[in-house]
User: Which sequence fits this backbone?
């Protein structure tokens, strides 16, 4: 069933219309919440606020990734020029991202989702898995083992920055500048140690949140190898707490995104409601929240089954959408 046959021309225009004000608000919201987390630690510096910041920073760092994703698709603002400008200068730098490189690789995931050629399969094709195995994955994330691999890559790139291609060099230097600005702001606030908390979150809780997001989108779906997005992709209509931590800026509506990638993030909830009202999702299960989702994808007694090889190694790719 084609979504364009389900929605009226007026409804398609409604969900497809882009707004610079709505796009700017997503940036403002993510930056404001990030600053608020720093302010919370500065005003009440204690173990509880630091632990809370480690969790909340992960959601905001994912939020910057969502903005990279949307601008990389060219769907957030009304023009490609605005998407490129805000994506490369304000979305990608806080997490050392390269929007253009990411967008090029991401197109293959959209084109090949539902097939065994999907480049992102290593992130989710062996789900559901045994709870003990998922706990081991989570520990590798929270212990910094997963994040260290990326951090080491950033360090190596910085050591040979002059040999990088212009695009990669520009993205890397913008990322470095963003970290310097964050450290400078923390120092000016009299609490340079907050930068360490930001970086620890990037290396630990952020990696776990990324893993959960990837599994939520495609892990243990109805049929991972069917070309119908309703079978190979999932939406989790998340509550406010889920959106604060696991799925900021409407990224939880991933099924809608795969159904029509041209729809901007701020219109995906409307699209979901319209399609649900018209029966497009009559046979599609939706988890109540992320707790229910995690129960679903961690089933006792499951063993790895990566591309038909039960002995396949753990996937290490964690940055795709």
Assistant:
């Amino acid at each position: 069933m084609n979504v364009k046959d389900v929605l009226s021309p007026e409804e398609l225009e409604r969900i497809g219309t882009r707004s610079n004000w709505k796009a700017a608000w997503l940036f403002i919201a993510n930056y404001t919440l990030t600053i608020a987390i720093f302010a919370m630690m500065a005003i009440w510096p204690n173990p509880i606020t630091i632990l809370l910041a480690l969790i909340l920073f992960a959601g905001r760092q994912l939020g910057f990734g969502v903005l990279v994703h949307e601008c990389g698709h060219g769907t957030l603002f009304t023009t490609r020029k605005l998407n490129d400008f805000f994506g490369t200068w304000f979305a990608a730098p806080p997490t050392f991202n390269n929007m253009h490189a990411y967008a090029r690789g991401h197109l293959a995931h959209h084109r090949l989702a539902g097939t065994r050629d999907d480049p992102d399969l290593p992130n989710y094709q062996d789900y559901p898995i045994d709870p003990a195995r998922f706990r081991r994955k989570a520990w590798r994330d929270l212990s910094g083992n997963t994040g260290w691999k990326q951090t080491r890559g950033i360090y190596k790139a910085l050591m040979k920055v002059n040999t990088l291609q212009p695009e990669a060099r520009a993205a890397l230097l913008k990322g470095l500048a963003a970290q310097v600005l964050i450290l400078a702001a923390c120092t000016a606030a009299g609490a340079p140690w907050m930068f360490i908390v930001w970086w620890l979150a990037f290396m630990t809780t952020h990696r776990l949140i990324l893993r959960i997001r990837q599994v939520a989108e495609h892990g243990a779906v109805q049929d991972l190898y069917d070309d119908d997005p309703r079978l190979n992709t999932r939406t989790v209509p998340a509550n406010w707490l889920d959106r604060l931590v696991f799925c900021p800026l409407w990224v939880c509506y991933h099924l809608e995104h795969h159904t029509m990638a041209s729809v901007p993030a701020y219109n995906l909830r409307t699209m979901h409601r319209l399609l649900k009202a018209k029966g497009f999702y009559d046979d599609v299960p939706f988890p109540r929240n992320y707790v229910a989702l995690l129960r679903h994808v961690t089933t006792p007694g499951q063993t790895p089954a990566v591309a038909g090889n039960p002995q396949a190694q753990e996937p290490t790719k964690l940055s795709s959408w």
User: Anything to note?
Assistant: The chain has 16 helices and no strands. The chain has one domain: 3-297. The radius of gyration is 20 Å. The CA atoms of residues 55 and 291 lie 16 Å apart.
